[in-house]
Write a structure and sequence with these properties.
The protein is α+β, with helices and mostly antiparallel strands and about 500 residues long. It is built from 18 helices and 18 strands. The strands form 4 sheets. The chain has an 8-stranded mixed β-sheet with strand order 1-5-6-13-12-11-7-10. Helix 1 runs antiparallel to helix 4, helix 4 crosses helix 10 and helix 8 runs antiparallel to helix 9. It is elongated and about 95 Å long.
Length: about 500
């Protein structure tokens, strides 16, 4: 007779490509997002929270194949309705911009125009996970829909600078660099690059910061061999065609005026390129009038990421301070935000072009930067723990905790087995509690309680030679009515 098989227990593990966030991490992220939200709110932007699920059709980039939508999104097909054909394909949103396009089209008769909104929340991408690359992550976006003026772009750029500073990045530790897709299109026009080659040229131009001027020249012409020995085919441009492209990439001058003048040479007689330069000039002027000088924002033609997606101004926030990599080498932290103008996203729904511009901040990267600067990620202070010396007096202990909370102090009552007092203090230590409240029968009869400074106690225990700590008692007795006053005084140390 076969033995009964025990039911298989599920494995207690996070799915591949996902992670769990605990107290201090969640608190630090929310605090940062709250500060950024205040900046967006001051600039007149309204919060928008959309569903985490959209139809695949609305998402736009990923459409169903025979069995399921293309890789890139987490998608599923709803059950067919009897007599109604196949069910809709639904997917978890992969960014916060596609839902905005749907909202702008769906509520276009109800929303103000232009519509300024900000959104923060998780997005999901069905991609191969890797070190530091997760399938669920947070985004923090702000966009203006319905404004064709580059004043909207300047406003977004200024707001991005304010948001970084509000988050904790000091002036001088970041730079918002601004470019324009129209300028590059004008350069391609001046270089006589065929439309079929434009995408290939953009891909190679994007490698400028990695391979430099000589490397890009090789990639645009006959090709090059990289450090691993792999041969990369060239785009096949002639030498005279490469000239305007390289002039564009190296046109950064001593100031914005010099950069714009150099760009004028690079675009030659292209009217589209001239239009892009004029837009950059207007943006620079508006930012200067608002007080955003070259220590915060600069015109920089080397910003080429995302140019295939954007239709006008494009910008990137780069952190300029140095950190040490895993091998102890100095390097700059790099980009933490990017955005630009995308005037054809809502058109998919309405058939009409709707101007839009926006920015997206990489929440995890910005948090990592703040940790490097020592302004986020520190251990969060735990609650004051009210210990339980007498199980029958639980109501008294709950009253103490309620009194502390009413005064704005985080507090909780120990709810485990109160028999072993040492376990209660171990629990308080694990919670990161700064203070423990103790009141046994004797203290209750005398109308007093003991307030134990756990932070000071730990310091005295590990660094007993420090007299300034030893001179302060790690545990004090106080009248019951002085609970809040005594705890407040200890927490202020």
């Amino acid at each position: 007779m076969a033995k009964d098989l025990k039911p298989r227990r599920p494995r207690a593990e996070t799915p591949k490509g996902f992670r769990d966030y605990f107290g201090a991490e969640v608190t630090a992220r929310q605090a940062m997002l709250d500060r950024i939200a205040q900046v967006y709110h001051r600039h007149g932007f309204d919060a928008l929270e959309t569903s985490g699920v959209e139809t695949v059709e609305a998402l736009g980039k990923f459409l169903p194949d025979v069995d399921r939508p293309n890789a890139g999104v987490f998608a599923w097909q709803e059950e067919a309705v009897p007599g109604g054909g196949s069910g809709d394909w639904l997917a978890l949103r992969y960014d916060l911009t596609a839902p905005l396009a749907r909202v702008a089209a769906q509520y276009r008769n109800d929303l103000p125009s232009p519509y300024r909104r900000y959104a923060m929340g998780p997005v999901w991408r069905n991609e191969k996970p890797g070190p530091g690359r997760f399938r669920q992550f947070y985004q923090c976006d702000a966009d203006t829909v319905g404004a064709a003026s580059v004043a909207a772009d300047a406003e977004i750029i200024a707001m991005l600078a304010d948001a970084l500073e509000a988050a904790g990045i000091e002036r001088g530790d970041y730079l918002v660099r601004v470019n324009n897709r129209k300028v590059l299109n004008g350069v391609l026009e001046a270089a006589r690059v065929a439309e079929a080659q434009a995408a290939d040229v953009l891909r190679q131009v994007d490698k400028f910061d990695k391979v430099g001027k000589a490397g890009v020249r090789q990639l645009l012409t006959t090709g090059r061999t990289d450090d691993s020995g792999a041969v990369i085919a060239g785009v096949g441009l002639a030498d005279d065609q490469v000239g305007p492209v390289l002039a564009f990439l190296t046109s950064k001058g001593a100031d914005n005026a010099a950069t714009l003048a150099n760009l004028g040479v690079a675009v030659g007689g292209s009217s589209l390129g001239a239009e892009g330069i004029d837009e950059l000039s207007q943006i620079a002027g508006m930012l200067a009038a608002m007080g955003y000088g070259p220590d915060r924002v600069v015109i920089d033609p080397s910003v080429v990421r995302g140019l295939g997606y954007y239709t006008g101004p494009v910008f990137e926030a780069e952190l300029t301070f140095e950190i040490l990599d895993e091998k102890g080498r100095k390097r700059q932290f790099g980009s933490v935000a990017g955005g630009g103008r995308y005037d054809d996203l809502v058109e998919r729904f309405t058939g009409q072009k709707v101007p839009a511009t926006g920015v997206s901040i990489g929440v995890d990267r910005l948090l990592a930067a703040l940790r490097e600067k020592g302004v986020a990620g520190a251990e969060a202070q735990g609650p004051v723990v009210v210990t339980v010396m007498d199980r029958d007096r639980m109501a008294d202990y709950q009253a103490m905790a309620a009194e502390l909370r009413a005064a704005g102090i985080r507090a909780e009552v120990y709810l485990g087995n109160p028999k072993n007092f040492g376990n209660q203090l171990k629990y308080a230590d694990k919670r990161g509690a700064p203070v423990a409240i103790i009141q046994g029968a004797d203290e209750a009869a005398r109308g007093v309680l003991q307030v134990k400074d756990l932070v000071l106690g730990a310091r005295i225990a590990t660094q007993a030679s420090v007299e300034e700590w030893k001179s302060q008692p790690a545990q004090v007795e106080c009248p019951r009515e002085a609970l809040v006053e005594t705890v407040t005084e200890i927490l202020s140390r």
